[in-house]
DNA sequence: GGCTTACTACTCGGATACTGCTTGTCCGAGTTCAGGGGG
DNA sequence: CCCCCTGAACTCGGACAAGCAGTATCCGAGTAGTAAGCC
């Protein structure tokens, strides 16, 4: 039960794209920014494109660009784009198998175990959806020197 | 990012042990209850023993027994026992690698990305810790016939 | 000199191997119970 | 009749394979810029 490291890569890369200023930035530069594998980062960025968080510009001087402002991108958007299905607990309905299935073959009500786990996961998802990348960027902006350095490094 | 199915197995088995009445129940019977692989279920139950949620009685007529009442077992206890480390997001501190590392080699403050993800996970863990198995059992007790059937099946 | 055209370099995008964890299985150590033999 | 001993059956416990998702990599398709050639 470990989240893919692609999520961390995607989050930092989205922030870097914002600090870059809006112009398209190539995959190679974005990877070099954090010493990542360029080809694998590309895979993650393609997922972000598919989720319509990024737009890709092919050809020379192409690259990736934010599809919308950071204030319109939540943590849940990023996690969902990279991980796909964000459900942690998958109920296999084992309560209807084996001897328990003989007792109650057709589940008349929802599984209480599943319901409890879903409640907890909803709290997680709501917390993810409540935080936008703009808020994280605001934290980074408390040290403007870094933001400026990133900007020059990517331009 | 999928939770081990051992969590579902453990939750249902703990509830079954409660309905069994307190006497030790063998691993084979517990597995047959839901048509599970007995040997693999045993692996999960050993984790619960190590977490002190269950006690094991060796020898003939032995088995597993709840170490404490359901009202003192939370969902977080079970998830933590099976999954071990319950942190979903592992920050690799990539902000200090590559060219970004040249800008800020020594992180003076906590990583805002990590902090945001941890906040969301804390909401999840709190929601897990807030729900006990006794509350789930209360839902099941709304149909006493099933609880009785499980009791007789395990005795 | 200006326009067309072919070439090159660079980009994204999907198809292809490798690794580690989850899942599943097996066999051994230990304990309890039952039955038989002896006192 | 009671006690002891031996055996067997059953249990847990850890060590040993198979499958699959995550990880990493490579190569092809496409586009923009550039430079040369032609009008």
Please render the helix and strand layout as text.
The structure is a homodimer of 155-residue chains.
Chain A: H1 5-20, H2 27-34, H3 38-50, E1 54-57, E2 63-66, H4 75-83, H5 98-103, H6 112-129, H7 133-140, H8 144-153
Antiparallel strand pairs in A: 1-2
The structure holds a DNA duplex (39 and 39 nucleotides).
Average pLDDT confidence of chain A is 93
Highest-level CATH class of chain A: Mainly Alpha
Anisotropy-based shape of chain A: elongated
CATH superfamily annotation of chain A: Winged helix-like DNA-binding domain superfamily/Winged helix DNA-binding domain
Low-confidence regions of chain A: none
Helix- and strand-based class of chain A?
mainly alpha
Rounded to an integer, what's the Rg of chain A over CA atoms? 20 Å
How large is the count of helical segments of chain A? Answer: 8
User: How many strands of chain A?
Assistant: 2
In terms of quaternary structure, the protein is homodimer
- H/E series of chain A, N to C? HHHEEHHHHH
Strand content of chain A: 5-15%
First-residue to last-residue Cα separation of chain A: 38 Å
| CATH architectural category of chain A | Orthogonal Bundle
Q: Assign a percent range to the helix content of chain A.
A: 55-70%
| Number of discrete domains of chain A | 1
CATH topology of chain A: Arc Repressor Mutant, subunit A
Describe the largest sheet of chain A: 2 strands, antiparallel
Largest interface: A-B, 58 and 59 residues
Main sheet of chain A: which strands, in order across? 1-2
